[in-house]
Amino acid sequence: MTKAGSRSGRLVVLGVGVALVTAGCATVSPEEMDGRLADLREEMQQADQENADRIEQVDQRVNSMQNRLNSLERDLRSLREDFDVTVQRMETALRFSTPVHFGFDNAEVRVEDQEFLDRFAGVVSEYYSDATITVEGFTDPAGSEAYNMQLGQRRADAVRTYLVESAGLSGDRVRAVSYGENTQRLIRPDAQGPGEQGWENRRVVIVVDFRPTGGSGPVAATDMTEGDRAGS
């Protein structure tokens, strides 16, 4: 309630109170009238104090939320600047295009990527403690599609394992899925190994989803059959 509204409300109450009191003045003594007016003033003062307390509580919550939002923005900016991370904001999620890449036909988390994963886990724990974290694994186009689905899953699993076992995130909040060589998600469609070529495609993307989830997401690749050749 605004101050103007509060004053208006007090005037209305006071007017009604005075009208009630004066309406009965023929049968009420001056002492009783003074007592009733005093009680009315006390009730109005108490209501004013309660309104002021509620307004202060709302202001405190707004300030706290704003401070937390400012702190989150600083931490996200630090991730972008320190690790060249791209953060895409969606309606109920954040997608982190991470600097975590892999060697050709390899699914091991590199030592140089662990600092980013530690910092990322810290941000998630601080601001999104109830969110679902999805690690998406990708490959370059070399090799069969089936093998690359499995390889992408191994990469996502490796990052998930690090986030849970080393960075401290809860295992029931972090899942891993594979997109393999999904052509719509390749950074450079024409880049592939062996060797350093195609390193941009051999990566993980991490999605922080802070809405209740009911779906299972993309289905992980099944075990490989003989005859599939090495992928990326």
Write a structural description:
- The chain has 232 residues and is α+β, with helices and mostly antiparallel strands.
- The chain folds into two domains: 3-65; 84-209, 60s Ribosomal Protein L30, Chain: A.
- It is built from four helices and five strands; from the N terminus they run H-H-E-E-H-E-H-E-E.
- Strands 1-2-5-3-4 form a five-stranded mixed beta sheet.
- Strand 1 and strand 2 (93-101) form a beta hairpin.
- Helix 1 packs antiparallel against helix 2 (30-83) and helix 2 runs antiparallel to helix 3.
- The longest helix has 54 residues, at 30-83.
- It is rod-shaped, with a radius of gyration of 31 Å.
- Residues 213-229 have low confidence and may be disordered.
Which features does this protein show?
five-stranded mixed β-sheet; alpha+beta; about 230 residues; 5 strands
Number of domains: 2
Please state the overall shape, judged from the principal axes of the Cα atoms: rod-shaped
The mean pLDDT is: 80
Instruction: Calculate the terminal CA-CA distance, rounded to whole Å.
Output: 63 Å
The amount of beta strand, in percent, is: 5-15%
> Can you write the helix and strand succession as a string?
HHEEHEHEE
Name the poorly predicted regions.
213-229
Q: How much is the radius of gyration in Å?
A: 31 Å
Structural class: alpha+beta
Remind me, CATH topology of the largest domain? Answer: 60s Ribosomal Protein L30, Chain: A
**Helix amount, in percent?**
40-55%
Number of strands: 5
- State the major sheet: 5 strands, mixed
Name of the top-level CATH class of the largest domain: Alpha Beta
In DSSP terms, counting alpha (H) and pi (I) runs of 4 or more, how many helices?
Answer: 4
